[in-house]
Design a protein that fits this description.
By secondary structure, the chain is an alpha/beta fold. It has a single domain, classed as 4-Layer Sandwich (Metallo-beta-lactamase, Chain A). 28% of the residues lie in helices and 23% in strands. It has helices spanning 42-54, 70-73, 87-101, 105-110, 114-119, 189-200, 217-225; strands at 4-5, 10-13, 24-28, 33-36, 62-64, 82-86, 133-135, 138-142, 147-152, 162-166, 171-175, 206-209, 215-216. The protein starts with a strand and ends with a helix.
């Protein structure tokens, strides 16, 4: 699988449904590069890095996490450079680490969904690690003529959803924030409305969910507020 170029500074390694692999995105600054999310496993990370190498792109110095779910974080131990997550996300990661380490924890986690079983079909261990660095609610980075804003938002998917806005590129990375809560996929209307307001407050022109193709900001808001339209 190859990288898709989204803007002058942004590339995306596309999502895959079978193993529930999310988009892994790449933001290239003049001083360093940033990855968005750490993937479902070390194999997912290594596939991403091979795609970067084919494009002649340097490995990311920093990997930012959108939320704690396993398909976005279980490759954290394999990433190059440092990892960065919101404080809520890191608390969830520590809890997940304890759960997987507990007796029967690996089997219980694999039983959550067949996509996890497929990602770990070769019997490799489940490895959960907390982030190297943590921020409370909002943080700004500048990778070199490429300002990036990270901020927590209320959202229907999880209580730790972080949005990542590459401001000069006008791209907003949503993670799974617009999705319903696992495993019922219920979407609370008030949280959808709050997320829509947050997205509307940005200058982004392109919104990228983790398991979907890029949409306009207006289409993303429309889908949140009027899902049956």
């Amino acid at each position: 699988m190859k990288l898709d170029r989204l803007t002058e500074r942004i590339w995306v390694y596309p999502f895959e449904e079978e193993r529930d692999r999310p988009n892994l995105s790449y933001i290239r600054g003049d001083r360093f590069s940033i990855a968005v999310d750490a993937g479902h496993s070390d194999a997912h990370v290594f596939d991403f890095y091979r795609a970067l190498e084919r494009e002649g792109l340097p490995f990311p110095s920093l990997t930012v996490i959108t939320h704690w779910h396993w398909d976005h974080t279980m490759g954290m131990h394999a990433v190059r450079g440092l990892t960065l997550a919101g404080s809520r996300t890191n608390e969830h990661l520590l809890e997940l680490q304890r759960s997987v380490a507990a007796g029967g924890g690996r089997e219980a986690h694999l039983a959550l969904h067949e996509s996890i079983q497929k990602e770990y079909a070769d019997g490799k261990p489940l490895i959960v690690t907390p982030a190297d660095m943590v921020f409370p609610d909002e943080m700004k980075l500048d990778a070199g003529n490429c300002p990036v804003r990270l901020f927590h938002t209320l959202a229907p998917h999880t209580d730790d959803s972080v949005l990542i806005c590459a401001e000069s590129e006008k791209v907003l990375f949503l993670g799974d924030a617009p999705c319903g809560a696992f495993p019922t996929w219920e979407k609370k209307e008030n949280l959808c409305r709050k997320l829509a307001e947050t997205i509307a407050s940005t200058d982004a022109q392109i919104c990228l969910e983790s398991h979907w193709t890029p949409l306009s900001r207006q289409q993303t808001i429309q889908d949140l507020l009027y899902p049956d339209a």
